[in-house]
Each structure stands twice: as structure tokens, then as C-alpha cells.
Amino acid sequence: MRKLLLILCFAVTFNLSAQNYSFSKTTATYANLNGATVLENSNWTSIGQGVKVPFAFKYWGVALTDSLYLDDWGSLSLDNTYGEEISFLYDDLESRGAGKTLVSSKLDGIAPNRIFKIEFQNVGFFGDSPLFVDSANVQCWLYETSNLIEFRYGANKVKASTWSDGGAYVDLIDAGYNNVVSIENDPANPSVNLFINNLLPLVGMPANGMVYKFTPVASGIQNEVIHFKVSQNKIIISAALEIKSIALYNSNGQRIQIASEAEQLNLSGLAHGVYLVAVDTKDGVMTQKLVL
Fold it and tell me: Based on CB atoms within 10 Å of each CB, which residue in 8, 26, 167, 240 is the most buried?
């Protein structure tokens, strides 16, 4: 009989953050920023600079106290190491020539409902050098008050061979690298991965007009305990909170099972290894590693 190495009791506290994100997708007409502040328009091969968000903004429930740092991989970080945290196009990017590729920012709207927008316009890819035939347009929108994050994709032409890893990495990672919401596989119908150890890219580029939306979910579950019972190769989960769904992910970040509140996850037939159990409640998502 398979032995559970991690879960040795009937109640465990889940790994929680002060905030989680729900993911949704929609479409909208893409328009390049007009009247924006140009951050970079030279024939650059790498960039790295701080961008101050012009209003109070919380990321994973924590207020930003410094600039976001923009890099040439199509991502924003919370410190000057330019590490991936807010990633909307993560790949090795380059200018297509002086005056041809704009990196810019713009503040739109009226307080307290302003939107801070960052755009890579007509950006090229290292994998397409030296001709730089391929190009992409993408924007990251940060919303005042709601703290919502959107990635908006415009016209693009990117060959499969251009990508360094087959496609764009699109995800939100917290500052401690403990929690993630990653959008993977088919850009038109992406899967959501909450397993930070094995992030995967999209297979290609989102279509012109695609919008990926990450909505903060206020969490009141920091001190909650999920009752986690293991019986006959099955996980039975109960809690005082309303459970919307229970999912099991493998070490590759693939969701291999999902169950409703009344059902059970089945461990029979699973190989030894590390898994992630994600419990989606009305107040947020709670996760716990499981070692078989």
C-alpha cells in the first residue's frame, strides 16, 4: 500500500497568501498607446529600468513601495534583479531597429479608477535575429483601486522557431516565489497552473485582441484549517468554507484530476512523486504539496 509521506494527520494548514487571483479571458480591439511616455526607442538588445506606478497598487495583497522593474524579456519584477514576477511575454526580446520598436507607458483615466499601461510595440525576438522579420505587440494594464492586472495582445507574427521555449510564459508570481498563477498551453483556451516548480509556456502567441485578466480575490482564509483525510487511496476534504472545486496537479504542472465538493480525489494508480492539491473556495485558493 502506498505510503503518504507528507500528510500524516487528519488536519493540515494549507499554504496561503493574503490574496489570490482568479483568471479569465476575453477579447477587445487592440490599440497602440497614443501620447505615451517613451521609455526606450533605440536599437536595444537589452533594457532594464524602474517604472513607478503612479498610484497605490497591491500585488498579491502587498502594497508596492518601490518601482516595478521592466526588462527585455517582457516582464516586470518587484526589485532591481529583474527577476520574472509579472510576466506577459517572457522571451528574449530585442529592438527591430532604432525608431522601430517602442517601449512606453501611459496613465489613463480619472482617480480612483486610473489604469497604468505599459507597452512593447513592434518588438522583435532574439531567436529571429539578424533579420527581425517577426514582431509582437503587447500591453500590461494595472488598475487602480481594484488591483486588477490585464495582459492585452495585439497584432503579431512569430514563427515557432523564433521562441526560445516554444511560446510566451504568462504568469503572476509573488515576491517570495511561493505562489503562482500561470497560464499555459493553448493561447486560445489556456490551462491554469498553480504549481510553481514546473511552469510551462503557451504554445505560441495569443491572437490579436486576446485579453488575459487576473482579478484579485480577497482572502479571509489565512487562519483556516482544511480537514484532509486519507482513506483507501482517496483524499477526502472538508472545511467550514464553501469549496468550489478540488484539483490535483502533477510535478509537471498538469492538472490530472478535479473534483467537486461531494467527490473524492483518487490516489490509486499514481506514481511516487510530488503532487499539488489545490482547493478553490469562495474566498480564495489554498494549496498543499502531497508526497506519495
Answer: 167
